[in-house]
Write a structure and sequence with these properties.
Layout: H1 3-20, E1 25-26, E2 35-39, H2 45-56, E3 59-62, H3 82-87, H4 89-98, E4 116-117, E5 120-124, H5 131-137, E6 143-147, H6 150-159, H7 171-174, H8 180-188, H9 192-208, E7 216-220, H10 221-226, H11 228-238, H12 248-254, H13 274-286
Helix pairs in contact: 6-9, 9-13
Length: 306
């Protein structure tokens, strides 16, 4: 990275600390976010959100529905059932406020590196089972869904020593989609890799319900890493912001991915044991999600619905 790019990154680190304290301005009037970014945890949503934020000069809001990061949502379980949210006007008002231009946020949610922003991009990873409801609440604003090979997500989560997500609140939303065998897999437990594979499957079954919605854009992490310029340009066109494409190359250089990173795609192979990979494959086959990725090469097989 040349000296000019190093200087830009240094400046952004300083400004980010100002953002933590709420020192920034969102210019103009933007009642709705320019886009909502969603996906399973460890799928690359933080990276994509940061990249899009800098290309678009949009304020990034990081997981505002997380009660540990936002005092406005301190009473809320982000994996609450859709049924509960639909019956609770306080929940609905708080959720809408988290996506609004008046959202103050905290050090955790305010991850931007500018003083002036032209709009907002909101990232959420814990509300995948009610994204369709959020879409209706937000009047069909664009939703970008980032998909990643389940082995990679699970390996990253195990390496980070994060617990298996708790789906008990949202299970009532998911259960009608499950076969008896799939429901059994949710109940029986097992190794951490097995339970994470079930969690990934539950989340992605709900994500895929939105594949026919016109305002949902499905993106593969693997394509983003190996064809970064092309994928970002596609996303900008899909959300109606193609006029910002001229900034893509510089931002990719600042992220140090101006060259394709094919080796990133299969890093999970050195992290997961053969037994863990077999358990994950068994779960994917049971949930009928195994045909979306080639588990040998780690690449997406289907352009649709992903």
């Amino acid at each position: 990275m040349n000296a000019h790019l190093v200087a830009i990154n240094t400046y952004r680190k300083v400004v980010r600390r100002l953002n933590w304290g709420g020192y920034f301005i969102e210019t103009g009037s933007h009642p709705l976010p320019w886009a909502v970014l969603a996906g399973y945890t460890r799928s690359g949503t933080t990276f994509l959100g940061r990249l899009l934020s800098n290309v678009l000069r949009a304020r990034p809001i990081h997981e505002p529905l997380n009660p540990s990061s936002s005092r406005e949502m301190s009473f809320f379980n982000p994996r609450e059932s859709r049924t509960t949210i639909e019956k609770n006007t306080i929940y609905q008002q708080a959720i809408l406020a988290s996506f609004s231009e008046g959202f103050i946020g905290s050090k955790y949610t305010n991850t931007g590196s500018r003083l002036f922003y032209d709009g907002r991009i909101v990232k959420i990873v814990r509300g995948n089972h009610y994204l369709d409801y959020l879409s209706d609440m937000l009047h069909q604003c664009p939703f970008i869904v980032l998909m990643r090979n389940p082995n990679a997500c699970i390996a990253s989560r195990i390496k980070s020593d994060w617990p298996v997500p708790d789906h008990s609140h949202s299970y009532s939303d998911i259960e009608p989609l499950l076969t008896a065998e799939q429901a059994k897999f949710y109940r029986i437990g097992g190794s951490k890799a097995f339970r994470l594979a079930v969690s990934w499957s539950l989340d992605n079954l709900m994500l895929l319900k939105n594949s026919d919605r016109e305002n949902f854009i499905f993106v593969h992490y693997e394509n983003l890493i190996t064809q970064p310029y092309t994928e970002i340009k596609k996303i900008l066109m899909s959300i109606g912001k193609s006029e910002h494409a001229g900034r893509i190359s510089r931002e990719l250089a600042l992220e140090n991915i101006d060259k394709p990173k094919e080796d990133y795609v299969n890093r999970w192979k050195t992290s997961l044991s053969n037994q863990q990979q077999e358990e994950i494959e068994l779960v994917l086959q049971t949930f009928n999600l195994h045909h979306y990725y080639d588990q040998t090469d780690g690449i997406p097989l289907n352009a649709k619905p992903f």
